[in-house]
Amino acid sequence: MKAAILRSLFRKSSTELAPERKVAILGAAGGIGQPLSLLMKLNPLVSKLALYDIAGTPGVAADVSHINTRSEVTGYMGDDQLKQALEGSDVVIIPAGVPRKPGMTRDDLFNINAGIVKSLCSAIGKYCPNALVTVISNPVNSTVPIAAEVFKGLGVYDEKKLLGVTTLDVVRAKTFYAGKAKVNVAEVNVPVVGGHAGITILPLFSQASPRANLSDEDIKALTKRTQDGGTEVVEAKAGKGSATLSMAYAGAIFADACLKGLNGVPDVVECSFVQSTVTELPFFASKVRLGKNGVEEVLGLGLLSEFEQQGLEALKPELKSSIEKGIKFVHQS
C-alpha cells in the first residue's frame, strides 16, 4: 500500500482528467514544510501549490518551482500575503510551529504552537472556509480542537473538513511490524487509533495484515516503539532536529489520500484524528473514509485484543485532558 501510494506521488502520468486542485502549505519554509513542499510538487493531483511562511518562502518556492511537474508554485511571506496564499485552496496543510528538542514533551510545545494554529485557522476561516484542513502542528491532540473552536467562532466549522494528521504513527507501525514479522512492508497495513502523543497512540497490531504469530512481548515492544518513535528521532538527532523528513512523507501521503477522496476515488481509507463518536471523547483517531466532502464516514475500532482494550482505557484520561486544554486555550486567549 505504502509503495503504491509512493509510486502515485512520483509517477509521470497524464493529468488531463485530474481536476484543478490548489493546495496551500502553511509553514512551508520549516523543517517539515520544505520536504513536504517538495513531495506535494511531485504529486500530479496538485495544479496550484501555495507555499506560505513568515520568512524564507520566496527561496523555497523558487527552488521547488523548477521541478518539471504539473503544479504552478507561488511563495507567500508574512501576514499581508496570507490571504492570497489561502484564497481558492481545496486543501490546506498546516505544519507550522516549533519542533521538539531533547527533553521537550509535546506539551512543552503547546503555548507557542497553539497560538500559531489559532492565528492561521482564523485566516483559513475567513479566506477559504470550505477547504479541507489537515493539521500537522503538534500537539495534534490539542491543535485540532483549537482549530475546531476557531472555526465554530467564525461560524464555518464543518467536522468533515478538519483532520489531524496521525499518518506518521501508521507509517512507523507498518515499518516496525514488517521488520519484526519479516514481511514485505509494502503489503503491511496496521490501523493506529487514539491520539498522536505517547500512550494516546494505540497501534492495533491484532488487526495487522498480513498476519504474523508475534509474541505478547513482541507486540508490547512494537507498541512502545511506535509510541516513542518521535523521541527516538529527537534523541538520534542529538538536539539538532526532530522527525521532519518522515513527518513530511506522512503528511504528503495523507494529503494525497484527501485529494483522491475529493476527486471521487472510491474506498480511500486512512487513519486520522477527527471529531468522533467512536468513544465518549469528542475527538479520536481511527480509520476514516475520505470522499468529496472530506470525512465521509468515521469507522469503528473493530475487535480489540485484551492488551489493546487496556491501552484504550489507559489513553482516555490523557487524551481527554489534551482536548480540553485546546478548547480552553481558545476561550481564554
Automatic annotation (TrEMBL):
<feature type="binding site">
    <location>
        <begin position="27"/>
        <end position="33"/>
    </location>
    <ligand>
        <name>NAD(+)</name>
    </ligand>
</feature>
<dbReference type="InterPro" id="IPR022383">
    <property type="entry name" value="Lactate/malate_DH_C"/>
</dbReference>
<feature type="binding site">
    <location>
        <position position="138"/>
    </location>
    <ligand>
        <name>substrate</name>
    </ligand>
</feature>
<dbReference type="GO" id="GO:0006108">
    <property type="term" value="P:malate metabolic process"/>
</dbReference>
<dbReference type="InterPro" id="IPR010097">
    <property type="entry name" value="Malate_DH_type1"/>
</dbReference>
<dbReference type="InterPro" id="IPR015955">
    <property type="entry name" value="Lactate_DH/Glyco_Ohase_4_C"/>
</dbReference>
<comment type="similarity">
    <text>Belongs to the LDH/MDH superfamily. MDH type 1 family.</text>
</comment>
<feature type="binding site">
    <location>
        <position position="53"/>
    </location>
    <ligand>
        <name>NAD(+)</name>
    </ligand>
</feature>
<dbReference type="GO" id="GO:0030060">
    <property type="term" value="F:L-malate dehydrogenase (NAD+) activity"/>
</dbReference>
<dbReference type="InterPro" id="IPR001557">
    <property type="entry name" value="L-lactate/malate_DH"/>
</dbReference>
<dbReference type="InterPro" id="IPR001236">
    <property type="entry name" value="Lactate/malate_DH_N"/>
</dbReference>
<feature type="binding site">
    <location>
        <position position="113"/>
    </location>
    <ligand>
        <name>NAD(+)</name>
    </ligand>
</feature>
<comment type="subunit">
    <text>Homodimer.</text>
</comment>
<keyword id="KW-0816">Tricarboxylic acid cycle</keyword>
<feature type="binding site">
    <location>
        <position position="247"/>
    </location>
    <ligand>
        <name>NAD(+)</name>
    </ligand>
</feature>
<keyword id="KW-0809">Transit peptide</keyword>
<feature type="domain" description="Lactate/malate dehydrogenase C-terminal">
    <location>
        <begin position="166"/>
        <end position="329"/>
    </location>
</feature>
<feature type="binding site">
    <location>
        <position position="100"/>
    </location>
    <ligand>
        <name>substrate</name>
    </ligand>
</feature>
<protein>
    <recommendedName>
        <fullName>Malate dehydrogenase</fullName>
        <ecNumber>1.1.1.37</ecNumber>
    </recommendedName>
</protein>
<feature type="binding site">
    <location>
        <position position="106"/>
    </location>
    <ligand>
        <name>substrate</name>
    </ligand>
</feature>
<keyword id="KW-0520">NAD</keyword>
<feature type="domain" description="Lactate/malate dehydrogenase N-terminal">
    <location>
        <begin position="22"/>
        <end position="164"/>
    </location>
</feature>
<keyword id="KW-0496">Mitochondrion</keyword>
<dbReference type="GO" id="GO:0006099">
    <property type="term" value="P:tricarboxylic acid cycle"/>
</dbReference>
<keyword id="KW-0560">Oxidoreductase</keyword>
<dbReference type="GO" id="GO:0005759">
    <property type="term" value="C:mitochondrial matrix"/>
</dbReference>
<dbReference type="Pfam" id="PF00056">
    <property type="entry name" value="Ldh_1_N"/>
</dbReference>
<feature type="binding site">
    <location>
        <position position="172"/>
    </location>
    <ligand>
        <name>substrate</name>
    </ligand>
</feature>
<dbReference type="InterPro" id="IPR001252">
    <property type="entry name" value="Malate_DH_AS"/>
</dbReference>
<dbReference type="InterPro" id="IPR036291">
    <property type="entry name" value="NAD(P)-bd_dom_sf"/>
</dbReference>
<feature type="binding site">
    <location>
        <begin position="136"/>
        <end position="138"/>
    </location>
    <ligand>
        <name>NAD(+)</name>
    </ligand>
</feature>
<dbReference type="Pfam" id="PF02866">
    <property type="entry name" value="Ldh_1_C"/>
</dbReference>
<feature type="active site" description="Proton acceptor">
    <location>
        <position position="196"/>
    </location>
</feature>
